[in-house]
Specification:
The protein is flat and about 55 Å long. Helix 1 runs antiparallel to helix 4. The protein starts with 12 loop residues before the first helix and ends with a helix. The protein has eight helices and no strands. It has 287 residues and is mainly alpha-helical. The chain has one domain: Formate dehydrogenase/DMSO reductase domain (Formate dehydrogenase/DMSO reductase fold, Up-down Bundle).
């Protein structure tokens, strides 16, 4: 049985940035794992870059989550029972599951970060070589994907009208998280002038993620029915325009054969659109 919130939560900007950066951190790690496992030698530098990027982005998330609690010094109570000092894991509570996923994924991101640093110096950690290393990054990628999509699930199990009226938020946030992660990795790859074959793969992946995001956005509104009109109030229209620009324009640029507009511009638009989506979904239901 899944536990729902007793009263509708009132989340602030901290949680919006947590959702956004959590999607990037988890998505970037997953993309790095895919490039490492399925790519060729030319993709190795970008896969390493993904692991180097995931941990610093992820490190901001627990800070934001702690600040949102209002009583930061009590954050440890979400993991440790203050009476018995045993582990405090509630499998029926999405909030508890999310905190533990964040903690476990942090371990994978930290180890992969150290391994990526070691590979920069021409060495490789023995425990991440061979089959064991592949299993490690696969499991880490699973936790990363869960983190990227869990934020939408957390909204769905709240008692807040609109969030709890649709089942599509988890999938929508996962697709959006992968899209902004691909855009982030593509942007950093271009700034670092890494191998273009990996950048082309990221662009192709972002194309599919964006299409999936648009489909799920339609499903999101269809599943809400008349309740969805609350999101279309005049105060939110500007943000929806930003969301559409951040998805449709990059998608058109990905399909275009003429590169009149820098690819980095498409990546920036994707990031802005992904952030705008989370802003309007979080605050549109609360106001």
């Amino acid at each position: 049985m899944v536990e729902h919130f007793v009263t509708p939560p009132q989340w602030e900007w901290y949680i919006v940035w947590y959702f956004f950066l959590g999607g990037i951190a988890g998505g970037v790690y997953a993309l790095g794992a895919i490039l490492r496992l399925l790519g060729d030698d030319r993709d190795a530098p970008v896969a390493r870059l993904a692991f180097l990027l995931s941990l610093p982005v992820l490190a901001v998330c627990p800070i934001l989550l702690t600040l949102d609690l209002g009583r930061p010094l009590r954050f440890w109570h979400m993991m440790i029972d203050s009476r018995t000092f045993g582990l405090n894991f509630k499998y029926w509570s999405p909030m508890s599951v999310g905190v533990w996923v964040l903690l476990i994924f942090s371990v994978f991101a930290f180890v992969s970060f150290l391994e990526a640093l070691a590979s920069l110096r021409g060495s490789r950690a023995p425990f991440l070589a061979g089959g064991l290393g592949r299993v490690f990054v696969i499991v880490g990628a699973v936790f990363g994907l869960f983190l990227a999509g869990y934020t939408g699930i957390l909204l769905s199990v709240s008692n807040q009208p609109i969030w709890s009226d649709t089942w599509a938020l988890g999938a929508l946030f996962l697709a959006s998280g992968l899209s902004v992660a691909a855009a982030t990795l593509s942007l950093v790859t271009r700034l670092g002038r890494h191998e273009q074959s990996a950048e082309a793969k990221l662009t192709r992946a972002d194309r599919y993620f964006t299409i999936l995001e648009l489909v799920l956005l339609v499903v999101f509104f269809l599943s809400l029915g008349a309740v969805g009109s609350r999101f279309l109030a005049p105060r939110w229209m500007a943000l929806w325009v930003v969301v559409l620009i951040g998805t449709l324009v990059p998608l058109a640029l990905h399909f275009s054969t003429e590169r009149r507009v820098p690819a980095m511009f498409a990546a920036v638009l994707t990031l802005v659109g992904g952030l705008a989506l989370r802003i309007v979904v979080v605050f549109g239901a609360q106001m």
